[in-house]
Design a protein that fits this description.
about 30% helix; alpha/beta; Rossmann fold; 9 helices; 7-stranded mixed sheet
Length: about 230
């Protein structure tokens, strides 16, 4: 049901695939062992789920096969990276990488990223990534997109003042859909100075697997900041 406050409001449900091709014996084994060790439990004290060396927590929703998550975790050992991905094969691919690279600042949730966000306390997240989310291009499916006004309310609540929200898409209709909402939301300001800022990735933003496949068209990269103060 839509509400006047939240025109995008809808009953939350996880859309998309959980299961795909059968996992290999090694992948299935890693889900039992390594995912058990690195599992993130949605809750009010995210820092407590990381080693003491971790000083702040970032979240990536829909990490796919996890290349971007691994890069960020390796570059920022003082940051705890939480990754959410319900697709089992994506999780299995990331677990295979983590078995080789061994990063102690990654925690993983095989499910809906919004469950993590809803459980976080206010101003607890240092950065949020939503990179090439499922585009749901048909108009009647737009309500299934992850980035909704009510999700932006939640993200404005959990992001620290000044914290970045990074979004990328190559879908021609998701881009205006996301921009319209981000620009209208009082909690966020666009950090772009000019076209170069949304046409190319900054140096600390490696390409994802999906981006490399260039599936739908040219990608756009958005960096927004959580405003220090939100006007009433
Ligand atoms: C198009 S893929 C992009 C994957 C990756 N970010 C990349 O760029 O390669 C979108 C991913 O988002 C995941 N996803 C969809 N809804 C999600 C949700 N509510 N929480 C977490 N992940 C989600 C899907 O399973 C899928 O793997």
């Amino acid at each position: 049901m839509d509400t006047p406050d939240h025109p995008d409001s809808h009953r939350r449900k996880l859309y998309g695939r959980r299961k795909g091709p059968k996992l290999s014996a090694r992948q299935a084994g890693l889900r039992q062992t390594l995912l058990g060790e690195l599992a993130y439990t949605p809750g009010p004290d995210p820092l407590s789920q990381f080693p003491n060396s971790v000083q702040e927590v970032w979240l990536e929703v829909g990490f796919g096969a996890g290349e971007h998550l691994v890069w960020q975790a390796a570059q920022h050992p003082q940051v705890g990276l939480i990754g959410a991905e319900p697709y089992q094969m994506g999780m299995a691919k990331l677990l295979t990488k983590l078995e080789e690279i061994q990063l102690n600042n990654v925690r993983l949730y095989e499910g809906d990223g919004s469950e993590i966000i809803q459980a976080l306390p206010d101003a607890s997240l240092g950065r949020f990534f939503l990179l090439f989310p499922d585009p749901w291009p048909k108009t009647r499916h737009h309500k299934r997109r992850f980035l909704q006004m009510e999700m932006l309310d939640s993200l404005a609540r959990v992001l620290k003042p000044g914290a970045e929200l990074r979004f990328a898409t190559d879908d021609k209709s998701y881009l205006p859909y996301a921009l319209e909402r981000l620009m209208a939301h009082p909690g966020f300001e666009w950090l772009a100075q000019g076209p170069a800022d949304w046409k190319s990735r900054p140096a600390d933003w490696p390409p994802t697997r999906y981006e490399t496949k260039a599936i739908r068209g040219l990608p756009t990269f958005l960096r927004f900041a959580r405003r220090a103060k939100i006007a009433a």
